[in-house]
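Translate structure to sequence.
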């Protein structure tokens, strides 16, 4: 798709257009249509850059794609046909990487900044849960439970995550975190969060180990316990992001797009196309062309395209020595269910976090559940996705604790992927490589990578402090309003509200 409306949908059409699109000069060539690459492509197109964006796959999204059931079988079952009972392709949008979106995170801010939010519809995630292992006493045995992370004051009072006195200590901790301001020494109460570690802050409030796990992994959303030795200010900022996201568009701090995550990179692709970008699927970058140590373009088959800058995901430079390094592996397991996950009050969407310490690991295990409520599968199915860092030579054994929480699984699709990070920065030769996607349950670390790369590429910082607010029906929205001031309703909220209440309005009409 290009600014002129070119849509390539058949191979014959593609072959006739590829030569004219390739043999041109561009400001930037982007390889791979993952979320990071599409955001950068969209932002650079808005700045007036002439962008060529290619992908070897026949669909948008790269690793972040949402695929139909046939493509899911092509990826995991060597092209075998899915059972007829699974229904039509149009009913399936299965994410290859399970993530939710923080309601007040930087991805939402970029969506609002670019107005890509208008291409998408959203729904709040029903709830977030945390796994706890509890030792037995005189009259009870050891047991593992999943507890809902409280989304409001009422749930906090009823929660069995902690006892009555611990709840009081935890409340004092959250009040302290909310009020902490290094410009106001009174709020610091003698604690310097920029110099002292998170472990010291927990000691200050005498929090129990399970509570520390809950705060660090279910609210600050850390992947492991390394944060305990880092400056507490980092943990404070992450907890604030979580609490600021709660109530932003509903009780849950997490959002999920209707029709799956693949719609987000598609939205940014659309933004780039509107601003003159050219997109070419089914096109591989067989070679990144270099002259005198500088990028000059790419070669795809017999065709070439030229640009002084190339942005790509790690898979496009694996054949270039010393360009990326392997930093680990991630196992992801897509499970098709016929019922909601037990002990989640039949939630149609939820997240379950299994903190590392609770199961004797070095990193957390995440479960994300979505369903027909998000138009990602037929109404009789649910999709649960498990992800975690690989720590042993038997990755599937590592996720058994998560699989047991799901109940009966109709079918599962397992992948183990290497994770790569760039070794070379890219400013010297014009070849910028994004990082692989981690196992965290949200996109915040990915967006940090995008913002860092945007600054390196443009020598500018993307200003996300003033964003467009919601348009009222029958009128135009004001130009901008501060996000963190009065917190006006934003257009994204309007689209969530409309989708959430669509069924209710239909029932009232009947």
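Result:
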């Amino acid at each position: 798709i290009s600014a002129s409306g070119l849509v390539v949908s058949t191979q014959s059409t593609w072959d006739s257009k590829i030569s004219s699109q390739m043999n041109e000069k561009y400001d930037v060539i982007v390889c791979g249509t993952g979320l990071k690459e599409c955001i950068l492509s969209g932002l650079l197109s808005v700045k007036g850059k002439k962008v060529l964006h290619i992908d070897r796959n026949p669909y948008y999204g790269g690793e972040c794609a949402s695929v139909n059931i046939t493509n899911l079988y092509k990826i995991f079952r060597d092209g075998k046909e899915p059972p007829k009972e699974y229904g039509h392709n149009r009913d399936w949008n299965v994410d290859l990487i399970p993530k939710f979106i923080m309601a007040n995170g930087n991805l939402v801010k970029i969506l609002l900044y670019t107005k890509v939010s208008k291409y998408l519809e959203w729904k709040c995630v029903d709830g977030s849960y945390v796994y706890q292992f509890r030792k037995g006493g005189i009259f009870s045995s050891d047991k593992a439970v999943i507890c809902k992370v409280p989304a409001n004051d009422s749930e906090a009072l009823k929660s069995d995550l902690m006892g009555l006195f611990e709840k009081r200590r935890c409340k004092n901790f959250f009040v302290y975190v909310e009020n902490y301001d290094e410009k106001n020494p009174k709020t610091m109460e003698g604690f310097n969060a920029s110099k002292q570690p998170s472990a010291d802050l927990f000691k200050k409030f005498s929090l129990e180990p399970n509570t520390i796990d809950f705060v660090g992994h279910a609210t600050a959303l850390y992947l492991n316990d390394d944060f305990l030795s880092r400056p507490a200010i980092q943990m404070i900022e992450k907890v604030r992001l979580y609490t600021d996201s709660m109530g932003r568009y509903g009780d849950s701090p997490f959002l999920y797009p209707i029709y799956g995550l693949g719609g987000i990179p598609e939205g940014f692709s659309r933004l780039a196309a509107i601003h003159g970008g050219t997109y070419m699927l089914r096109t591989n970058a067989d070679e990144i062309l270099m002259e005198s140590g500088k990028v000059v373009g790419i070669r795809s088959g017999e065709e070439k395209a030229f640009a002084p800058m190339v942005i790509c995901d790690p898979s496009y430079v694996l054949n270039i020595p010393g360009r990326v390094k392997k930093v680990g592996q991630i196992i992801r397991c897509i499970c098709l269910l016929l019922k909601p996950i037990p002990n989640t009050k039949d939630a149609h969407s939820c997240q379950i976090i299994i903190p590392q310490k609770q199961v004797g690991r070095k990193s957390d295990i995440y479960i994300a559940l979505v369903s027909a409520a998000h138009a990602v599968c037929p109404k009789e199915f649910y999709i649960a996705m498990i992800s975690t860092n690989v720590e042993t030579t038997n990755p599937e054994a590592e996720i058994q604790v998560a699989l047991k929480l799901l109940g009966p699984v109709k079918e599962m699709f397992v992948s183990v992927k290497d994770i790569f990070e760039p070794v070379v920065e890219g400013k010297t030769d014009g070849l910028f490589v994004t990082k692989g996607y981690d196992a965290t349950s949200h996109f915040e670390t990915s967006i940090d990578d995008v913002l860092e790369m945007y600054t390196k590429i443009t020598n500018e910082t993307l200003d996300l402090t003033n964003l467009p607010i919601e348009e009222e029906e029958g009128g135009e929205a004001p130009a901008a309003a501060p996000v963190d001031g009065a917190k006006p309703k934003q257009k994204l909220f309007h689209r969530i509200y409309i989708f959430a209440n669509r069924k209710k309005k239909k029932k009232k009409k009947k």
